[in-house]
Design goal:
single chain; 164 residues; 13-stranded antiparallel beta sheet; 1 helix
């Protein structure tokens, strides 16, 4: 694929947000900023790969038109996202925020709270001495996350649908 060419991924026609009290991204590798097709044109997104993603206290809200869907896991339960075919999950997202609680093998960044966007990428993320490590965030929020070739396991799922 040519540099800067749109990827064969299309964003959903919905606005949504994932929240977790703790988010653990195992064997995480930052793959750069990419262009993805969105409902109103091209969108710049962060691209990561991970072996798995664990979300404690998963709470996902999806809004489309006048409908809101909310998916929550059982209180304090760990939901897991794992790759299907090659054991790797590819993640695209617009923004990732939280407090860095742990980074395997390296010291924590100078400020614990981070907001990562295509226009604000922390130096410690791009200049990693090792390409893949585990990153743990507390109070995490991810917006417009798209996961490719992955399965999500949610213990005790609670689903609510609201219509305006």
């Amino acid at each position: 694929m040519a540099p800067g060419a749109p990827l064969p991924v299309r964003l959903a026609n919905a606005s949504w947000q994932l929240r977790a009290t703790r988010l653990v991204l195992r064997t995480l590798t930052f793959r750069g900023v990419v262009t993805v097709r969105g409902r109103s044109g091209s969108v710049r997104m962060l691209r990561f790969t991970a072996r798995s993603v664990d979300a404690v206290g998963l709470d996902v809200t999806v809004r489309q038109g006048g409908t809101t869907l909310r998916l929550r896991a059982r209180k304090a339960a760990t939901s897991t996202l794992k790759g299907r075919s090659n054991g790797v999950v590819t993640l695209y997202l617009r923004e990732l925020t939280g407090t860095v609680a742990a980074r395997a093998g390296t010291p924590l960044p100078p400020r614990g709270a981070v907001t990562i966007t295509p226009d604000a990428i922390p130096n410690w993320l791009t200049n990693q001495p090792a390409p893949a490590r585990t990153l743990t965030l507390t109070g995490a929020t991810a917006s417009h996350l798209t996961a490719c070739d992955a399965d999500l396991t949610v213990p005790g799922p609670q689903i609510r649908v609201g219509v305006r």
